[in-house]
Design brief:
Elements lengths: L1 E8 L8 E4 L4 E5 L7 H10 L29 E9 L11 E9 L4 E5 L2 E3 L1 H7 L12 E2 L12 H12 L2 H189 L3 H61 L7 H72 L6 H8 L5 E4 H4 L7 H8 L6 E3 L2 H14 L6 E3 L12 H4 L4 E4 L11 H8 L2 E4 L2 H10 L4 E4 L4 E2 L5 E2 L10 H278 L3 H6 L7 H18 L5 H64 L3 E6 L10 E6 L6 E2 L5 H18 L4 E5 L7 H11 L6 E5 L3 H4 L4 E9 L2 E8 L8
Parallel strand pairs: 3-21, 3-22, 8-20, 10-11, 13-14, 20-21
Antiparallel strand pairs: 1-2, 1-4, 4-5, 5-6, 6-7, 9-10, 12-13, 14-15, 15-16, 17-18, 18-19, 22-23
Helix pairs in contact: 3-17, 4-14, 4-16, 4-17, 5-14, 6-14, 6-17, 14-17, 17-18
Length: 1180
């Protein structure tokens, strides 16, 4: 890998586009002071991600943009592209050439790209991590920075050593693990607090739950008894009522007969009266008709006048509706165009989603294969461990057998010598005594072994129980982690929408993403809305939520100009210096109305500097609980707009609006609410995880303690087994001795031959056992080596698998963001379609209105013609009616005389009916009383048990005795009363609290496990950092001493660290002794000696970890010609490193392969010219 070229435009003094091609050898950049040479190294540092203006020799980052001269205008942008040859695949990307680009605008915005693909600065830093060529690397030595390498700034030299050792990434991982560990400890404390709080409540809840269950059982028995008693009472009343109804039926028959006679008389009376009334009514009707005819004649004339006025109004309405139709059609066309544009954008995003995440299924398959492979390796590893355990047991058995044979061989050998040498006979009594003592010791050892085995079995049971509980908590923990990841992904997606101002109109997003100076934020982000007030405030502010608050009117005008230039839409700006709040505030009359919540600006929280803005937006708004309370307040004061908590609106004029939106996807306040809720849910799950980890850590402690005890018991058991074997061998030996002593005389000659044979056989057996032991030990060694290799391979495989899983999580998050964006656009399309449908419906309504106007117009015209005909007909009818009225008056007088005679006959029948009615009334009264009792009993069933009478009949139990039921019912009611106040909800609450209690205890175990895992990770990172740093430090020290000696022609130099076991917190010292001088501190050297020493250290770093490219800016400025020759000649030894030198020294220039000259022919403008040192210079 090497730098191919750098392209600069508008960077510092390079106003015009400049391209510098780098040679693979040594490239020198020369020129007079102030010509802009060092701007080239600044450009390389800047494009690689430098963020410090001071290190770029500036006051602020905008100083890198060409500032202009007396004759040239300044640039609005600086751009640098560094092209790197990656044909060796040194960088971890699949490109043979990598172009890194950085742009910066005067507005402060920055852009980064890799091969013209937009990226983040972090992506560039990660790409160049541990290559040595990043902004924090040791390959970029700026002007005057060579002396800092050996200065008293210990952090400077430490950064170089850490970069060389490649431990920066591990330090970052360790810091992240320590932050997670601190958070885990915090979660553990929270989980423990919750458990303690639950433990203080669960006992009382259990008692209340038991009492509530007993109450429910008694209540059900009371219902059964009371229903049966009430049903029996209803049936008794119904039987009595039936008897009375039979008596009533007889009386009603007599009344019916007399009623017939009465009705006949009355009918005749009524008929005659009706005739008279009809005749008088006809007469009145005819008189009335005569008057109506006169009215109708007058009315028709007036209606004709009104009809002509309506015709003129219809013509005006027709003109208005036609104009509205034209406007609606134009609006419909615009909405349809907008729908098409959104559909194209949605299609583009869908295509991009399919392209970017096409490999996602493959990665999931690879993850599954990786899991299977890891499980298979773990299974094989466990099997090999079992094999090794079996081999160790076999080896121990063989060693014990060999020990027994060796003891036996000693006995045989001794006996053989005694027998063969005819030594003095042993005393039989002494042997018997020794045998008895050995038996006592042997039995004691066996008893102790039995006790230990029981204790080991008990510890194994404890260990199995702890491991089982630990595994259960791990399963629960994994479930919580999966749920947490889902919620975290959802929260990140919503936060991504929030950060990208999704749901806001395009103009707002354009301004907010431009980072315009002086912009405060959108109104939605400047307020904190209390829970439950989201709908009310969103309705109150409406589109004002998307208003942008800015510093002053100058910022607003600048932003509006930018919107116009980019045609990015329209936005409302609220300058803090010009927006005025409402002067009037408060009305005591509405504040006393029930349901008054508060004035709009008082219900939200905001920074006091936005007080005028909030007064302007919400000063005329009052929040009410319900629409009824809003109406009450509107009637009192009409100067406010009243909004309910559900989002309904009552204006000061009395207009009302309300309802619900079909789609709440773009509700910004609801989205903020969901983000906060997700945060709370994640925090709760984290607390659960902390509790589980705490519980698991406690279990791990118990497991470790139990395993330690078990190990100690097993060691003691092994020791006792060895004692038992030794005692058993001793017993066997004593038995042999006793037998020899008893039969020595008669068997001496025969035992001598047996002893010879036993000695030989025992020796052969010992040799055999030794051979078998050696074979088993060889197998054990092979298994141990195989286990070590497999364990290392399995560890590496797991690391790789975890990295892939992390990559998949990142892809899931990005995929969710793209899917949400597609969904958001789909929602916009659907909303626009709804708007289009509404417009089409309005068009249809308007066309129907036109048709209705046409029909009305035709009807009015026909009415005018018809009424003219009716006037003629009415005049003729009036003349005929006058004649009929005179005839009708004479007929009415004759009919009144016959009516008076019929009234006398009807009076006689009425007297008889009154007597029967008295008796019927008494019976009706009794029956009504029965009906009232029945209704009361049935209502009582409904009021007390909420069941109908038919349902109560179905619950009737014929086996229940009413007298015993009444007695038992009184006892049940007494028991219910003795229970006192009952909390039915305690049953469910106890079950929920108990479930949560168990859940939290398991969560505590998982948190404890997490703490242990994080501590292991931190320890592992410390070990890796120490190992890598020590290795790199030793290598740099060796090269440093070698190069120093070569540079100075002798002398010595060394690196020292005060505590190599803690390299990250230790001090690194450099000492140097040039030839002929005493060893002294680096700060006592001359300027040239310091520079040569620093260059020697820099070259030692490059030899320890070579970097493909190195930029040196006037590092040899303090050297004389001789030392420059030494410096330049040593550069040639780095064949695989590309050097770019910025220098004033002619001696350095002599060693260059390619030379670039930097001049400033025009003040403030740098120019470049190049010279290949192998080319011939032109003559004359």
């Amino acid at each position: 890998m090497f730098f191919k070229r750098i392209e600069m435009h508008g960077f510092k003094s390079f106003a015009e586009p400049v391209i510098i091609e780098f040679d693979r050898g040594i490239t020198c950049v020369v020129g007079p002071n102030g010509s802009g040479k060092s701007n080239i190294s600044d450009a390389i540092r800047w494009v690689l991600g430098e963020q410090s203006p001071r290190l770029l020799r500036g006051g602020k980052m905008e100083d890198v943009i060409f500032a202009g001269t007396a004759s040239r205008r300044s640039r609005g942008m600086a751009e640098v592209t560094l092209v790197i040859d990656n044909s060796s695949k040194f960088l971890p990307v699949d490109f043979s050439e990598v172009a890194i680009t950085r742009r910066m605008y005067r507005s402060g915005e920055s852009e980064y790209a890799i091969n013209n693909n937009a990226c983040r600065m972090r992506d560039i830093r990660e790409l160049l991590a541990d290559t040595g060529i990043g902004v924090d690397g040791y390959s970029l030595i700026g002007q005057g920075k060579i002396s800092e390498i050996i200065s008293n700034k210990k952090d400077s030299i430490r950064e170089i050593f850490e970069e060389t050792a490649g431990v920066v990434g591990y330090k970052t991982k360790k810091s992240e693990a320590e932050r997670k560990l601190e958070a885990t400890f915090s979660n553990m404390e929270r989980v423990q607090d919750i458990i303690l709080e639950i433990e203080s409540r669960i006992g009382s809840l259990e008692d209340e739950s038991k009492r509530a269950k007993e109450y429910l059982n008694l209540r059900d028995r009371y219902k059964e008894l009371e229903v049966n008693i009430t049903v029996k009472n209803i049936e008794d009343i119904e039987e009595k009522s039936l008897i009375f109804r039979e008596d009533l039926s007889e009386i009603e028959g007599d009344i019916k007969s007399l009623t017939g006679e009465k009705e006949k008389a009355e009918s005749e009376t009524v008929r005659m009266k009706d005739d008279i009334q009809n005749m008088e009514a006809d007469l009145d009707e005819k008189m009335l008709s005569l008057a109506r005819l006169d009215e109708d004649l007058n009315s028709k004339a007036g209606e004709n006048t009104i009809g002509r006025e309506r015709l003129r109004a219809i013509e005006n309405n027709r003109f208005r509706i036609n104009r509205e139709l034209l406007e609606l059609r134009e609006k419909l066309t615009a909405e349809l165009d907008n729908i098409s544009e959104l559909a194209r954008e949605q299609s583009h995003l869908q295509k991009k989603y399919e392209e970017d995440f096409s490999d996602f299924d493959r990665m999931e398959d690879e993850e599954a294969v990786g899991n299977e492979k890891i499980e298979q390796l773990e299974h094989e590893l466990e099997k090999e461990k079992q094999d090794m355990f079996s081999l160790n047991n076999s080896r121990n058995i063989l060693i014990n057998e060999r020990l027994g044979l060796e003891n036996f061989a000693k006995v045989v050998e001794k006996d053989y010598r005694d027998v063969s040498g005819e030594q003095e006979r042993q005393n039989s009594e002494n042997i018997r005594r020794e045998l008895k003592e050995a038996n006592i010791d042997y039995e004691g050892a066996k008893a102790e072994i039995g006790r230990l085995r029981k204790e080991i079995d008990r510890q194994k049971e404890h260990l199995a129980d702890f491991v089982r509980r630990y595994d259960e908590k791990q399963v629960e923990k994994r479930k919580i982690i999966v749920e947490t990841e889902k919620l975290f992904t959802r929260k990140k997606t919503l936060e991504g929408l929030e950060e990208g101002y999704e749901g806001y109109n395009y103009g707002v997003k354009f301004v907010m993403n431009r980072n315009v100076g002086g912009i405060e934020d959108v109104v939605a982000n400047l307020i904190d809305v209390p829970k439950g007030m989201e709908k009310a405030i969103e309705t109150a502010l409406g589109s004002s939520l998307q208003n942008i608050v800015c510093k002053d009117e100058t910022v607003a005008k600048k932003s509006i100009r930018l919107l116009k230039e980019k045609k990015a839409g329209r936005v409302t700006f609220l300058p803090l210096t010009t927006v005025k709040g409402r002067d009037e505030f408060g009305d005591g009359r509405i504040e006393n109305v029930e349901g008054f919540v508060g004035y709009g600006e008082n219900t939200v929280k905001f920074d006091r500097k936005y007080e005028k803005v909030m007064s302007y937006l919400l000063g005329g708004t009052v929040i009410a609980e319900t629409i009824d309370s809003a109406i009450k307040m509107q009637k009192i004061s009409k100067k406010y707009r009243y909004i309910t908590l559900e989002g309904d609106v009552v204006s000061g004029a009395g207009a009302m609006s309300g309802g619900a939106y079909k789609n709440k996807g773009n509700n910004v306040l609801e989205r903020k609410k969901e983000i906060n809720q997700l945060g709370c849910d994640i925090e709760k799950l984290s607390e659960s995880l902390e509790k589980i980890d705490g519980y698991c850590a406690d279990l791990r402690g118990k497991i470790e303690t139990t395993e330690t005890v078990l190990s100690e018991k097993k060691e003691e058991l092994d020791r006792l087994n060895d004692v038992e074997n030794r005692l058993r061998n001793q017993l066997e030996s004593l038995e042999i001795k006793r037998e020899i002593a008893l039969k020595e005389d008669e068997k001496r000659s025969r035992n001598l031959a047996d002893l010879r044979e036993n000695r030989k056989k025992t020796a052969d057996d010992i040799v055999e056992k030794n051979i078998e032991i050696e074979k088993i030990e060889l197998k054990i060694d092979e298994l141990e080596k195989g286990l070590e290799k497999r364990s290392e391979f399995l560890k590496a495989l797991k690391e790789e698998h975890r990295a892939k899983i992390q990559q998949m999580v990142d892809m899931r998050i990005k995929a969710n963001q793209v899917r949400n964006e597609i969904s958001s656009i789909g929602n916009l399309v659907e909303r626009n379609r709804e708007i289009a449908r509404d417009i089409e419906e309005n068009l249809e309504d308007k066309e129907k209105q036109l048709e209705n106007l046409r029909i009305d117009e035709e009807g009015i015209k026909e009415g005018i013609v018809s009424r003219n005909r009716e006037v003629t007909s009415l005049t003729m009818r009036k003349n005929s009616l006058n004649h009929d009225i005179n005839v009708e008056k004479s007929r009415v007088a004759e009919r009144k005389k016959a009516y008076e005679k019929n009234l006398e006959r009807r009076e006689e029948v009425l007297n008889k009916l009154n007597q029967l009615a008295g008796r019927k009334y008494e019976l009706d009264l009794r029956l009504a009383k029965f009906d009232t009792q029945l209704e009361n009993l049935k209502n009582r069933i409904w009021d007390e048990f909420e069941i109908s009478y038919q349902e109560a009949v179905e619950l009737r139990d014929d086996d229940i005795s009413i007298s015993s039921a009444i007695k038992e019912n009184r006892e049940v009611k007494s028991k219910i009363k003795s229970l006192g106040d009952i909390n039915i909800g305690a049953i469910k609450e106890y079950d929920e609290v108990k479930t949560r209690y168990e859940f939290l205890k398991e969560q505590r175990k998982d948190i404890q496990l997490s703490i242990s895992q994080l501590e292991d990770i931190i320890g592992e990172m410390d070990d890796i950092i120490k190992e890598r740093f020590k290795k790199s430090f030793d290598s740099i020290g060796e090269y440093f001493e070698e190069i120093f000696t070569e540079f100075f022609g002798g002398g010595s130099a060394k690196l020292e660290i005060d505590n190599i076991e803690d390299p990250m917190n230790s001090t690194i010292d450099i000492t140097a002794q040039p030839p002929g001088k005493q060893l002294r501190n680096i700060n006592l050297l001359s300027g040239g000696e310091k520079t040569m020493t620093a260059i020697a250290l820099m070259f030692a770093v490059l030899k320890t970890k070579p970097t493909p490219c190195c930029i040196l800016d006037e590092v040899e400025a303090a050297l004389d010609d001789n030392n420059i020759h030494i410096f330049a000649n040593y550069l040639k030894k780095f064949e695989n490193i590309q050097f770019t030198l910025i220098t004033h020294q002619k001696t350095t220039m002599e060693h260059a392969d390619v030379m670039y000259g930097v001049t400033m022919p025009e003040r403030g403008i740098s120019k470049i010219f190049s010279l290949n040192m192998g080319d011939e210079l032109p003559v004359g």
